[in-house]
Structure formats: structure tokens, C-alpha cells
Amino acid sequence: MAMLRSTLMSLAILAMLVNLAMAANYTVGGANGGWDTSSDLQTWASSQSFLVGDNLIFQYTPNHDVLEVSKSDYDSCQASNPIQSYSGGTTNIPLSSQGKRYFICGTSGHCSQGMKVQIDTLATSAPPPASPSSKPPTSSVTPLVPTPVPESHSSSPAETPKSTPTVPSPTPSATSAKPPSSTAHKGGFLVNITMGIIFVMTMLQAY
């Protein structure tokens, strides 16, 4: 169990490291744009695939800022009730959860001029942890078993029953049969043992 827990913990740490290594930084507006009124911000955002763990980087001049707002405030360009507000010229916002987020510029008239962007963050796909198996591994090797030799039904002349004419028996005791001889069973058992010994010796010689 200790080894299993260590393996699962290692897989979890590996998944976290993979996510960190795959995290991307997106400058809002792209290489040819920015957080301003002249960039087609929504077209830029639609062309990207944002994943949990990525970062948004807003770069802007002092006459702009960044407000995170609700969907209704985004649609109406309402800046009076922001969820978060940022300023300072450079803002780094981590995308820490799946879902849609909405950003606008709080400067009067800038949002209605197109300075707004909707970010749709998708979940990262991590490999599922290995599930422990409670059953021991089964061997694919089929043991070789000597093939049983069918019992011989041939009997010696002394054991061959004599045919007697069928006549009415005056008493019940005359019709009672004798128990069958066990000589044939013993002979088959000895043949099986002999074949088994021959098989084992053949396998030993092969190796």
C-alpha cells in the first residue's frame, strides 16, 4: 500500500509539473495589437485556446485600466460595479478556473468603442491516475498435464464371462451378480503413472 500511495503521489506531482510547463502567457490583443480602442480584441480572443493555468497579460497606457465585470455589465458596458479593477500599465491575470470571464476598460466611452474582451477558459486534460488492482496478476502459462490414457476394456480369457443360456431362476440368490474386477482400473492407473514419468523425463531432457 505504501508503494501504491507513493506511485499515485508521483503521478499527481507529475501532472502538476506538466500543467505548469504547458502554461502559456497571452498578451491581450496579440503581437500586432494591445489593450486599446484600435485593436479587434474579440476576434483575437476567439482565435485563441485558453486553458486553466494560462495567464492574460494586459499592457496599456495610463489613460486606460482593466475591469473584470459580470456578463450583464459586459454587455451594457457598465463600469460602476466591477468584480476586480486593475491599473498601472501592466496587469497579469492568471486563468485559474474553467469558464468565461469578462473584461472592459473603465474609461468613459472606451468599452463602447470596442475595448472589451470575453475570455473562455477550458479545462486542461490530465492523464487519469492508475487505479489499483486488488487481484493478483494471473499467469498466462498453462501447466502441462499428462493426457490420461483411456482404460483398456480388453479382458483376459480368465476374466471373460461365459455366456449362459437365459433360464428362469427359481430363487433370487441365483441372479445376484459378482462385483467387477478392479484389475482394469489398476492397470489404467499404472499406465497413467508411467506416462507421467515419461513426460517428466522428456521435459528434463529438453531443458
From TrEMBL:
<feature type="compositionally biased region" description="Low complexity">
    <location>
        <begin position="160"/>
        <end position="184"/>
    </location>
</feature>
<dbReference type="InterPro" id="IPR039391">
    <property type="entry name" value="Phytocyanin-like"/>
</dbReference>
<protein>
    <recommendedName>
        <fullName>Phytocyanin domain-containing protein</fullName>
    </recommendedName>
</protein>
<dbReference type="InterPro" id="IPR008972">
    <property type="entry name" value="Cupredoxin"/>
</dbReference>
<keyword id="KW-0813">Transport</keyword>
<feature type="domain" description="Phytocyanin">
    <location>
        <begin position="24"/>
        <end position="123"/>
    </location>
</feature>
<dbReference type="Pfam" id="PF02298">
    <property type="entry name" value="Cu_bind_like"/>
</dbReference>
<keyword id="KW-0249">Electron transport</keyword>
<keyword id="KW-0186">Copper</keyword>
<keyword id="KW-0325">Glycoprotein</keyword>
<keyword id="KW-0732">Signal</keyword>
<feature type="signal peptide">
    <location>
        <begin position="1"/>
        <end position="23"/>
    </location>
</feature>
<dbReference type="GO" id="GO:0046872">
    <property type="term" value="F:metal ion binding"/>
</dbReference>
<dbReference type="InterPro" id="IPR003245">
    <property type="entry name" value="Phytocyanin_dom"/>
</dbReference>
<dbReference type="GO" id="GO:0009055">
    <property type="term" value="F:electron transfer activity"/>
</dbReference>
<dbReference type="GO" id="GO:0005886">
    <property type="term" value="C:plasma membrane"/>
</dbReference>
<keyword id="KW-0479">Metal-binding</keyword>
<feature type="compositionally biased region" description="Pro residues">
    <location>
        <begin position="126"/>
        <end position="135"/>
    </location>
</feature>
<feature type="region of interest" description="Disordered">
    <location>
        <begin position="123"/>
        <end position="186"/>
    </location>
</feature>
